[in-house]
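S.,

Sequence below, as promised.
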Amino acid sequence: MKKTGETLRKLRNMANETVEEFYKGVISPQYAYHVERDEKEITQQRLVQILQRRDISYHEFEFIKKEYQSSEFDQVVQHVFKLKSTLNIKKMERLESYLEKQAKNESGQVYRRLQQVLHAHLVYAETQDEKKKKGR
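The prediction came back faster than expected:
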């Protein structure tokens, strides 16, 4: 993963701007050179100011910083959006399996909780399906 300064330099070069133009009014050119070399940190507030001038969200900046790779959590969210319907049991089961694997790989509780909720939904859906079959 790239560092903040390296990513800012990349954005500046993509904008084809000088250090003075890119950071004008936010940080001095001297300080910008240190930031771009990752010798000094830039505050969150100033970073956001620089990004807002270019209509770049912080989320987009992080995506660029991670070399256009989604975070693990973003990937989970993408899987959820791909479901489109909770009626597709096969996709739900695949997502549950993915979440279970993530819960083992990551120490966070989020994956475990999502997997538990999804599992509960699958059990409920199965129960409802059995009730429908018996009612026929």
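The chain has two domains: 4-65, 72-135.

Coffee later?
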